[in-house]
Amino acid sequence: MAEAPTKPVLLTGAAGNLGRMLARELAGLGWTLRLTDIAPFPDPLPPRAAFTRMDLADGVGLLRLAEGCGAILHFGGISVEQPFGTVLGPNVQGLYHVYEAARREKARVIFASSNHSIGFHERPQGNEAKIDVDCAFRPDGYYGLSKAYGELMGRLYWDKHGVENVNFRIGSCFPEPTEARMLSTWLSFADLVRLTECAVTAPRSGHCVIWACSDNPASFWGRDHRDRIGWQPQDSAEAYRARVGQITSGNPVIERYQGGSYTAIDYTRGKPSARDAFDLD
After folding, report:
1. DSSP string covering 84-137, please?
2. Which of 16, 218, 237, 277 is 20 to 30 Å apart from 163, CA to CA?
3. Which keywords describe this protein according to UniProt (predicted)?
């Protein structure tokens, strides 16, 4: 276990499911936290934590909150598929405010990206190769598109300003897998905490992208940059195969693509009739 960071850490989206869990667990590791969200914090405040209720649209407020922080854990914004206008402000403009705060403070950004940034890649079959983090973005909706934008924002701020950033392409982070797809995408809460700890405390990260899933043999994903920060997942979805391995959607679009149910939202191309029917690239 690494020592707690010497500087405070700012956590956006602290009132969300993952934010609340991270606040509790990181405080238990001795971290000093500044928590923020547009919604009230629903739990008793952990030790060494302070909460400020704030909208990501408040760029000046974010600058003030980030003063003296060594890292910003950016888990705020819209976290599910929504219309473009709903996603635009929090996930694009809000992210800009986070990076500007990080640039001023020379803080590292830990960005909660998503598998939905690449959700229209097909699931590997048989011995087909898994995709690596340098694969093309293939977002499966406006939410996934905003996550691709977020990773590119990190690339820009590293190349132009030297702002280090670690991008977690989160699969499915829940207490347990609930259906067959999660045998490939599941990330345990404990593995997310360990990943966050490594991302913040690593001596250097540069701009890196990590498949944020547990040690699942059925994972869709291959190489990433985890060696830069020294993270290896310790949990596995395989223990849940007998319980959830037969639970599928029955929808051919959902079952074909890595993004799962998000790929079928507002999908208008018609039912795929063959594996390569639409792939002309």
Report:
1. HHHHHIIIIIHHHHHHHHHHHHTPEEEEEEEGGGSTTSBPP-TTPPPBPTTSPP
2. 16
3. NAD, Oxidoreductase
State the pLDDT at residue 77.
97
Q: Please name the helix (run of DSSP H) or strand (run of DSSP E) that holds residue 210, with its range, or none.
A: strand 207-212
- Report the alpha-carbon distance of residue 76 to residue 114 in Å, rounded: 13
- Provide the whole-model pTM: 0.95
At 25, the pLDDT band (50, 70, 90 cuts) reads very high
Half-sphere exposure of 196 (CA within 13 A, CB side): 31
CATH number of 9-264: 3.40.50.720
pLDDT digits (tens, 9 = 90+) for 133-157: 999 999 999 999 999 999 999 999 9
Q: Which residue type, as a one-letter code, is found at position 199?
A: A
Rounded to 5 degrees, what are φ and ψ at 87? -75, -35
Query: Quick check: 276 pLDDT over 80?
Result: no
Model confidence at 275: pLDDT above 60: no
Separation in Å, CA 233 to CA 40, 104, 124, 180, 210: 32, 32, 21, 20, 11
Cβ contact 262:119 at 8 Å: yes
46 and 24 in contact (C-beta within 8 Å)? yes
| Residue 135 confidence (pLDDT) | 98
Contact residues for 84 (Cβ-Cβ < 8 A; gap 6+): 142
Catalytic residues: 143
How far is Cα 147 from Cα 266, in angstroms, rounded to an integer?
19
Rounded CA separation 19/216 (Å): 24
Question: Could you tell me the residue ranges of all domains in the chain?
Answer: 9-264
